[in-house]
């Protein structure tokens, strides 16, 4: 078209072709050749490729890669579309987009370190569990006595399911002792006071619930409140007759309580809710949730990328079409579904394909976030390639994994090329 001679054109293209051959074509060709050799360099035919589908670790990696390819790009694209549409009419939309896009400036390694801390199981260190525990405790308070239990020779016995009940029925006018032990002094309720023996009342069932333990050998009398022992402030007590609760109450700061005369002849029970373990959130980095957790960190990084591209496409959508649809009676959901999304289809395809190629080679986040106990469950092909090549020193299997990744990328690339050609012909 420009009249340039072919020899001159080839001369200018030669440096690019040399670099392409050295950095792309040669590694692909050598990896293909090396995938048919074993550790010692002997020809093994397709043994390395058979290993890909017989080794449990590699099969887990293939399964996880399939999950990544389906879930991560789809969710990132959906989030990007939602952010782009919702911020289009908001005055502070630009600031919001900037905040969402900022994680793209962080390297995968740094993001992995950040989310390794975010997903810490200890609510005092991990943000995710701190939020969950805060929400949970707002609606369901944790027990102050999770480790409490009756001591030997106690008037209480196990009632099953974590509850404790008196061995004998109680009587109005006779104070009841409900001693427990097992709670560390520094974990007792802040409003707990020195335990007191309950006063007898002929018309009520009275008693004391307290920590029956005094520091020092031989100090304190069992099954009786001592001056140094604290009451179980707020602990719940139920009166049970024939398996039914006929009355209930909570102990005061000094552990004393009173039940109405209906509790006469009943057994007193500490319900299991008194001893419920404190809610500490989820095991984000455990074997069950490790892959969804890492995908969550990926979305934090790449949803902004999807949002920016989709917002650019949204800016080119003719406003006349949107207004015409509204004039014809379409609501906002119909405009979005019937007009906006079809017009954004080419942009959505670009975002989806780009992210699919990106997640096929995901490495940094999985390598950094997954702890040793969950690395096998979080395994993906890129991490398995690294392990096979540098830890197991099995270059044949590593080359076979590299060729598998190459083959998985080809269909996505062909789809992208065909789409680009169709766009160019329009």
From TrEMBL:
How does the entry describe its membrane topology?
A: Multi-pass membrane protein
Region described as Disordered: 197-225
- Record GO cellular component, one term: plasma membrane
* Major localization listed first in the record, in broad terms: membrane
Cite the CDD domains for this sequence: TM_PBP2 (cd06261)
**Domain ABC transmembrane type-1: from-to ranges:** 62-416
The transmembrane segments are 7-28, 66-86, 98-119, 299-318, 339-360, 395-417
> Which keywords does this Swiss-Prot/TrEMBL entry list?
Cell membrane, Membrane, Transmembrane, Transmembrane helix, Transport
Q: Which domain of life is it from?
A: Bacteria
Matches recorded under Pfam families: BPD_transp_1
- Family the UniProt entry places it in: Belongs to the binding-protein-dependent transport system permease family.
List the PANTHER family hit by this protein, alphabetically.
BLL4140 PROTEIN, DIACETYLCHITOBIOSE UPTAKE SYSTEM PERMEASE PROTEIN DASB
Protein name according to UniProt: Sugar ABC transporter permease
Organism from which the protein derives? Streptomyces kanamyceticus
